[in-house]
Amino acid sequence: MTAPQSRQPLVIGIDSTVRILGQEGLTWPDTTIVEPHCSVLLGAEARLIFGNKVTVYSGCRFRSRCGELTVGDDVSFGPNCVIYEWRAGGRIGAGSMLAAGVILSGVNHGMDPEAGPYRDQPVQALPMEIGRNVWIGMNSTVMPGVSIGDNSVIGAGS
């Protein structure tokens, strides 16, 4: 019988391949781990605030024009997560896990066919709220305005 192994990330700190635009809106402590090929794109009015011991696995993307997203302590973002446009604000509670391929979106385009092309309609921004100790399964999408309570598990592909 082999002894249990401790969880060790591939890198410690921020990998040199991470692309950051809008550094002034970003707060992450020295305990943050960001693996290769991630990107953070923040508009002048956007804020992204990480708690302690947040792990961001390879290929994750964070992007918002404005708004503030706070991420609690001990949160992990699996490979290729997309956290998109938290314009109305958002929160991801401590101890939460977002598995590979999870998408959180804080905006929707207008959907009135009488109002012209969808791409030209104003967006509707709603808050993103993920409680503490939440596990969002692989390839799940969380749409604008959805709140997920503490201690919830969201099945893969939801």
Topology:
Blueprint: E1 19-21, E2 26-27, E3 33-34, E4 39-50, E5 55-56, E6 61-71, E7 76-77, E8 82-84, E9 90-92, E10 97-98, E11 103-105, E12 107-108, E13 124-125, E14 128-130, E15 135-136, E16 141-142, E17 147-148, E18 153-154
Q: How would the global form be characterised? A: globular
First-residue to last-residue Cα separation: 36 Å
What percentage of the residues does DSSP assign to strands (E)?
A: 35-45%
The overall pLDDT, averaged over residues, is: 93
The total of beta strands comes to 18
Give the count of helical stretches.
Answer: 0
Low-confidence stretches: none
Taking Cα atoms only, what radius of gyration do you get, to the nearest Å? Answer: 16 Å
**Computed structural class:** mainly beta
Q: How can the largest sheet be summarized?
A: 10 strands, parallel
Q: Helical amount among residues, as a percent range?
A: under 10%
Summarize the helix and strand pattern as letters.
EEEEEEEEEEEEEEEEEE
Structure description:
The chain is built from no helices and 18 strands. It has strands spanning 19-21, 26-27, 33-34, 39-50, 55-56, 61-71, 76-77, 82-84, 90-92, 97-98, 103-105, 107-108, 124-125, 128-130, 135-136, 141-142, 147-148, 153-154. The protein is globular. Strands 1, 2, 4, 6, 8, 9, 11, 14, 16 and 17 form a ten-stranded parallel sheet that branches. The chain has a six-stranded parallel sheet with strand order 3-5-7-10-15-18, with no helix packed on it. The protein has a two-stranded antiparallel ribbon with strand order 12-13. The mean pLDDT is 93. The protein is mainly β and 158 residues long.
